[in-house]
Specification:
single chain; alpha/beta; Purple Acid Phosphatase, chain A, domain 2; 2 domains; six-stranded mixed β-sheet; 10 helices; 12 strands; 43% helix
Length: 368
């Protein structure tokens, strides 16, 4: 966590310095305006930390206020810097053809206005949760079980300022799907853990016949595994901690989140898998273990958020080849990576809509 905090603060501070350098031409003369802007930017750099600290100390109102402003600003900052970068490139291209000095103030103000509009749209887009349907057929469902409906959520980040509002929409969508099974592939909880009692009440409203299961994502570690798992269990979820179990006609296996595959964890989780039983493997990050491919029919993952805010997908898709959507990493094995149901950091999305995934598992016609 300390490593993550150090890297985050360093990069975030650098982004604010770049922003200050770009917009200082808009400030009136004198020290006062620059000092006020510098103070505001310092507060925004510290806002995510202040949000977590005040929330952990029970000052939920302050945590909600600082978190809402700070995370919205984070999104605006990213988009504003992209707009300013585009403006700088345009200026560079136009410079040889312009005999006069470039008037920088009006274009900068225009770029900030465009960034504000894009950010506002992105915040709205993050609330537009899509229903993603995935149809799979198998000969591993027993006679009499013609179809199973599985709901996958991922990266809900409950406990963030906007989490409760989003969860109400999610619960409505899940209820309408009438699933046999609900699976969450990690990052269900996040700091500062606002509104968790109300969120647990909402989660408890859904009671699928085969149950609800979740695994740890990286943010469960940030919250604290004991705390995150206690919240999940109180909300009616069973937690798969490097283990597996038979669930009706299925076998579910789930492992902790990690930056790399731990073969011993996978082996422990798949120890009870049987060749004739449809096996679903849950791993938060979309990493695939080729050595267990013959034991896994479907892997469900999340973590990438589909990039969340364009053009972050250009980086994320290179880190995780199984970036978003359906893949077939091995014969007779499918891997589905959810774009995520919530957001982390900026409460916004651009060209990566949030989703609730409905997986229809159908018994293949003629299967014995």
């Amino acid at each position: 966590m300390s490593w993550f905090l150090t890297v985050f603060l360093s990069l975030y501070t650098l982004l604010h310095l770049l922003f200050y350098r770009a917009v200082r031409c808009l400030l009136p003369g004198g020290f006062g305006a620059r000092a006020l802007l510098g103070l505001f930017l310092l507060l925004m750099i510290l806002a995510p930390i202040i949000t977590v600290m005040t929330g952990s100390q029970g000052h939920f109102g302050l945590a909600r206020l600082v978190g809402t402003v700070g995370y919205w600003w984070m999104g605006f900052l990213i988009i504003a810097l992209l707009c300013l970068l585009a403006l700088s490139l345009l200026r560079l291209l136009a410079l040889p053809f312009s005999p006069q000095a470039w008037n920088w103030r009006a274009p900068v103000a225009l770029a900030l206005g465009v960034a504000f509009i894009i950010t506002t749209y992105g915040v709205f887009a993050a609330t537009d949760i899509r229903l993603k349907r995935l149809n799979l057929t198998t000969d591993k469902l027993p006679a009499g079980v013609e179809r199973l409906t599985i709901v996958q959520t991922s990266d809900l980040h409950l406990g963030q300022p906007e989490g409760k509002t989003r969860l109400r929409k999610v619960i409505k969508m899940v209820k309408q799907a009438k699933p046999d099974l609900w699976i969450d592939t990690g990052d269900m909880w996040d700091r500062p853990l606002l509104d968790v009692r109300q969120e647990m009440d909402l989660l408890r409203q859904v009671k699928p016949p085969l149950g609800k299961f979740m695994i740890a994502g990286n943010h469960e570690f940030y919250v604290g595994l004991a705390t995150a798992f206690e919240l999940s269990r109180e909300a009616g979820f069973s937690v798969l901690e490097n283990l597996g179990q038979a669930v009706g006609p299925l076998y579910l296996a789930g492992v902790y989140d990690a930056r790399a595959i731990h073969p011993e964890w996978d082996a422990a989780a798949l120890a009870g898998a049987q060749p004739g039983r449809f096996t679903i493997f849950l791993r938060h990050r979309p990493l695939f273990n080729q050595t267990t491919a013959g034991q896994v029919d479907l892997q469900l993952s999340g973590h990438t958020h589909g990039g969340q805010v364009w053009p972050a997908h250009l980086i994320t898709s290179r880190i995780f080849p199984f970036f978003a959507g359906l893949y077939h990493p091995a014969p007779k094995t499918a891997l589905y990576t959810s774009r995520g149901t919530g957001t982390w950091g900026p409460p916004m999305r651009l060209f990566s809509p949030p989703e609730v995934t409905i997986i229809q598992l159908t018994r293949r016609s003629g299967a014995k």
